[in-house]
Amino acid sequence: MARRSCKYCGKPLPANVTARCEYCPGGTCRKLAYKKRKAKGESAGRPKPAKPRRKRPEPEPSATLTGREFDRMMDGSMEDELRHVRDRLRAYVDDPDTPASAMPNIVAKYLTVCERLHDMAGGDPLLDALNESEDVSEVEDAGASIV
Fold first, then answer.
1. Distance from C-alpha of 64 to C-alpha of 75, rounded to nearest angstrom
2. Which superkingdom does the taxonomy of this entry point to (predicted)?
3. What residue spans of 1-147 are helical by DSSP H?
4. What does pLDDT average to over the chain?
5. Res. 60 pLDDT band, cuts 50 70 90
6. How far apart are CA 28 and CA 34, in angstroms?
7. Is the CB of residue 88 less than 8 Å from the CB of residue 106?
8. DSSP labels for 120-142?
9. In whole angstroms, what separates CA 94 from the centre of its chain?
10. Annotated domain spans of the chain
11. Degrees (nearest 5) of the Cα angle 66, 72, 76?
């Protein structure tokens, strides 16, 4: 790679100057070059105008809102915190550097947080239906044993 040099005096520029640097870092060469250009009547070398920034296109909101999206949008802060704690605990469980002696405590807390999140979400309707059917089967069995 060719070494860059000062436009005014021709000395090599240090390696730690920026890519846009054209003159020696002290500023004297830059000032002398400006005076020389001004005396000749050349332009003062104003910086080029910045390009206008293009705005990023915003994604269009989906026309239909699913129940899951609505629930996520309406989540309370407690549920967000529990999700964050759950994710952190999961990372500790998956990390091979986590000491084996700490694993039972971490897993117990992870399961507790998961249960609290599950309870906040209203439980699982399939499991609720299963529990109701068990109650009905106990009543049916009781009637059959009376005979």
1. 19
2. Bacteria
3. 28-40, 67-73, 77-94, 103-120, 125-146
4. 79
5. confident
6. 10
7. no
8. HTT--HHHHHHHHHHHHHHHHHH
9. 20
10. 1-43, 69-141
11. 145
The answer to whether 41 and 64 have CB atoms below 8 angstroms apart is: no
The model's pTM is: 0.35
Taking the C-alpha atoms of residue 38 and residue 71, their distance in angstroms, rounded to an integer, is 67
Query: Between vectors from CA 54 to CA 53 and to CA 56, what angle results, nearest 5°?
Result: 130
Mean pLDDT of 91-105: 92
C-alpha angle 100/104/106, rounded to 5°? 95
Closest CA to 111 of 82, 132, 135: 82
Tokens representing residue 24 in the block: 């020696």
Q: Is the pLDDT of residue 73 over 90?
A: no
